[in-house]
Amino acid sequence: MDLTFSPEEIAFRDEVRDFMATALPSELRDRMRQGRAISREDLVAWQRILNRRGWATPSWPTSVGGPGWSAVQRHIFMDELHQAPAPEPLSFNVSMLGPVLIQFGTEEQKTRFLPRAANLDDWWAQGFSEPGAGSDLAALRTTAVRDGDHYVVNGQKMWQGMAQNADWMFTLVRTDPDAPKRQMGISFLLIDLRSPGVTIRPIITIDGRHEVNEVFLDDVRVPVENRVGPENDGWTCAKYLLSSERTGIARLGMTKRLIARAKALCPDLPVVEGRRILEQLARLEAGVRVLEVTQLRILAAQVPGQADPRSSILKIKGVELRQTASELLLKASGRRGRAFAYEGHGEAPLEAASNFMTLRAASIYGGATEVQKTILAKSVLGL
Questions:
Q1: Catalytic: 245?
Q2: What residue segments make up the domains of the chain, in order of their start?
């Protein structure tokens, strides 16, 4: 497989490109180009624009309101969206919870949650990591004890991205503390974050932004009907979700945009320094090209309902490329890029430093690099 698209795929790319040029609000496009934070209201408005066009849920089948696109069409759409640049549809709703509900949810759950997730009527957060249970997710200690037609949930979740905006959280809880294997005693629950006993506290990251949180659950009552899949089999849902997340986490369009921004700045640098950075960018572009082909191969071979361990390749290499691009952008930005803005205290011209520091965490979230290599060694190489 190569990146020579068919005439139909080229026509689709042009359609997406034209839509991004005309439908994306100019103010939002400018903030995205400058690397500035966007508001909850901006993202909701944009996702609803996409949803009216039928494009808010790229990976969903037509049976649940998705466009039913091929792997190549999904790749083209996300690539054009990132380079526009435009915000992604909220990944917690569209790329994580949606595929899990489509595969494992009841018909009632699909009817209740999927349309609202697509239109961002409900904002979802991911409740997986805990203190002492991040990369070793099966070590989670949040408990859910059955009490009639409810579970009573107690515990703490960490690093919940944008949970300050969220209405609901999909989460993993321990429902059988005596299971012979840790993964066997875990269930997948949907929790209304407006429930009594839920406390959300901000975590301010090194760049001064409020993007992650810790969530405390104290005797939170969750209806049993909000469990996805059988009790104690939430690990199956989690593996499927994480595989979907890692497939999309390469975000090659974002890397291309970082490269383009760095290239545009090189003429302002001293000749030798600018030429050196351009050479590094050229090598980086070659790596992006190779990973694009790999991503399309993996997407084309995916079987619905089955986790594909090869998605770990995309996670590892995609993050490496994006981190390298952010470092080269920082170098190309010179003194301007070394400053960044804390929320409420002005905005830096490029926020290259903020972007560089934020992307350090990408080696950890979605599964640390070391964990991904272990998955590949066991599941792909058979070691």
A1: yes
A2: 7-89, 124-234, 249-380
